[in-house]
Amino acid sequence: MSATLGGYIKDLRLQKNISQLEIAFALGWKEPSRLSRIEQGKVGNPPRELIDKLIDAMTLSEEEKNQLLVIGNYLPTAEDIKEARKKIDPIVNNWEFPASSLDYTWRIISANQKLYKALNVSLKEQEGIEKYFPHTIDIIFDPDFSQNKTQNITESKERREFMVKTLMQFQHAQRQRTNEHWYQQLIKHMMGNSVFHDVWLEVRKKMTERPLIADFAKKTIKAKEGKKLNFYFFLTQLFNDPRFYIELYVPKDIETYKYFQGKK
């Protein structure tokens, strides 16, 4: 499979035995040179509206369509998210422990009540997450978010280490998307946060290091009662749609497991 949008479009077209001329006519074009330039990567990625028309013209399957959209780095729309949540919500909401979902840019799409309650997220904050899909990085560095209000030196140090590891992982995951508009806007916005700015500079110095995957797959949440909940967590890609992921938490110890027994 081609790694570029134009190359993938060409691969699909040839697999389906469709000529450039047929697609051009279906799109209302008089000749196929425009499609040829797209396939050869001689022009920038077409707007989402044109891609949707191209998807229809080629009668792509759901999986082919979603793969094309992620290769082209098309940010999921509100309608895309609404459709994805029809598959995501039953999994997230029925998970026995905390769970959430996000898109490939790391925007938070949803979370179950077990995660909200463990993090002591207010109803207003929950409504904001469900409506605006805030970015994970934005929340992690938000000093007003409940989990970021550390109370002692040890917790502050642990928080700093978590920020560094998370930002390293984010930069690694998005290394092919740094020229995308959403990425540049996010970093520009975050640079107004002095803590983020300092951590960003620290991470830049560690770019030669491998992301700490093993450590990153562990997470500690300080619950409302002051109890520390320890988890392993893992990401699983949404079936047939690589634009979305589900994050599932699993208790790391018996105390954390018992905390969720009987909680709804």
UniProtKB/TrEMBL annotation:
Top-level taxonomic group: Bacteria
Entries under Pfam families matching the protein: HTH_31 (PF13560)
Residue stretches making up the HTH cro/C1-type domain: 9-65
GO molecular function: DNA binding
PROSITE patterns to which the protein is assigned, alphabetical: HTH_CROC1 (PS50943)
Recorded coiled-coil stretches: none
Protein name: HTH cro/C1-type domain-containing protein
Organism (species): Candidatus Woesebacteria bacterium RIFCSPHIGHO2_02_FULL_39_13
